[in-house]
Amino acid sequence: MTATISTAASDPAPREARRAGSGPRLRAARRRGGAGRPRRSVLLTVLTGLVLLYSLAPLLWLAISATKTQAGLARSTGLWFDSDFALWDNITQTFTYDDGVFTRWLLNTLLYVVLGAGGATFLAVLGGYALAKFDFPGRRAVFAVVIGAVAVPGTALAVPTFLMFSTMGLTNTPWAVIIPSLISPFGLYLMWVFAGEAIPTELLEAARMDGASEIRVFFQVALPLLAPGIVTVSLFTMVATWNNYFLPLIMIKDPDWYPLTLGLNSWNAQAATAGGQPVFNLVITGSLLTIVPLIAAFLMLQKYWQSGLAAGSVKE
Asked: Global pTM?
């Protein structure tokens, strides 16, 4: 041991390495921040700022315009406040105008989201888990069908769906919006990928060897591991159902079953009808109230849906 230490101490190579390590080249690298830190790109920062500005400008216009009266919208610029701050009056009028029909539209939208988006999430979780963890004949064919369904836009299926529901007598009812919302090919694909990466097969086999049934394995072992993916799929389906406009437009004619999207559009169309009263301030305020629940949901569940989107992107 003594000989080894004395040999290392008398060897000039380590001293030369220390001198080289403390030279100007290493000090310059330390001043630049080191190799472990991410490199900064001015072009990428500028592009990100432009995208952020492009995304926030409509929200800023909406928030500012919601503080104006009907007359104030015409006499002021879009991105600055009017002399009369009427946000609270606009909110009150939005909920009381036309016998408070805005509240009915809000409850209809919540009904469509809870039953439609909630059911779509539940079916996507069951289907994604089964496709990821069970091997059965025709699994590749199912994969091809799911991918093909993701590529088909919803507007292409609107007319066939209307004809089918019209034959069954379900048009102009809430079921005409809820039942098509139960199918989410993208949610099924996302849960398929997430379940394959998040649930170890060995854990399921251990639970089965301990005598657990398949239902118990799913609810007590697999479901807690699928929480980030469930939140991600539920957010996607909730936003799609909440903002759904074209499907209710062709399915529902009774204003009592309008969602918020159709209801606000009917208020907006009043200015173009003979004798109609323009209520653009209420349309803008209602639009602002409509997006508040979505923003709150994304902010509260941010950490879950970010991890759900990142699942499966990198394999060890």
From this structure: 0.80
